[in-house]
Specification:
This protein is α/β, with parallel strands linked by helices. It has a single domain, classed as Collagenase (Catalytic Domain) (3-Layer(aba) Sandwich). Helices cover about 35% and strands about 15% of the residues. The protein is built from five helices and seven strands, in the order ααβαββββαββα. The strands form two sheets. The protein has a five-stranded mixed β-sheet with strand order 2-1-4-7-6, with helices on one face. A two-stranded parallel sheet has the order 3-5. Strand 1, helix 3 (about 50-65) and strand 2 (about 70) form a beta-alpha-beta unit. Helix 3 (about 50-65) packs across helix 5. The chain is globular, with a radius of gyration of 15 Å.
């Protein structure tokens, strides 16, 4: 799978459009979507072993947000993956809400597989061409990011991790909208 040129060359375009969409929702509804202002800790759950991406995510979170980071490989047993060998289905995630009930803890899943929100054939084709790098609000406080079989460069991966943490603390479009 080759990342679209726009993701590699002009990665900020996605964040700007998402930030503007969030502003429109905020103006129309008056609601600011966020998980918690008091986020203190992030639990990284690597679904496959890759120490390089785990360390990149840990350092990005600690440097950018000054949050405590815990790596928990045991939680991967609670996460049921899809039957597909290529995609991870986010709708199947269960049993993680007990870790985020206090709203002071967030969870980021790190996977090699591309992320698919719904198991539909057309979406599999679309997301093979235009992949999702990260997704928030799977269940409150849980995000997922992908390494695309360990082919994402460090700067894009760190940007994706920071962006998903931005969703949790209510800074949509982060880091563009610091």
């Amino acid at each position: 799978m080759i990342l679209p040129r726009i993701l590699v060359e002009d990665f900020n375009l996605y964040n700007i459009s998402e930030f503007l969409l969030h502003q429109l929702i905020y103006i129309v509804s008056g609601v600011k979507l966020k998980y918690s202002d008091e986020l203190e800790k992030i639990i990284l759950v690597p679904l496959e072993d890759n120490e390089q991406y785990i360390e990149w995510a840990k350092s990005a979170i600690e440097n950018e947000f000054s949050l405590k980071v815990e790596i928990n490989k045991n939680l991967r047993n609670k996460i049921k993956l899809s039957n597909s060998s290529f995609f991870i289905l986010t709708k199947i995630l269960k049993d993680l809400d007990s870790y985020t009930e206090d709203k002071k803890t967030g969870i980021i899943l790190i996977t090699k597989k591309p992320i698919l929100v719904r198991d539909q054939f057309l979406l599999r084709i679309v997301h093979s061409i235009f992949p999702i790098l990260g997704i928030a609000y799977l269940i409150p406080g849980v995000c997922a990011v992908t390494t695309f079989q360990d082919r994402i460069p460090k700067n894009i991966f760190n940007h994706t991790v920071s962006h998903e943490i931005g969703h949790l603390i209510g800074k949509h479009g982060y880091p563009i909208s610091k």
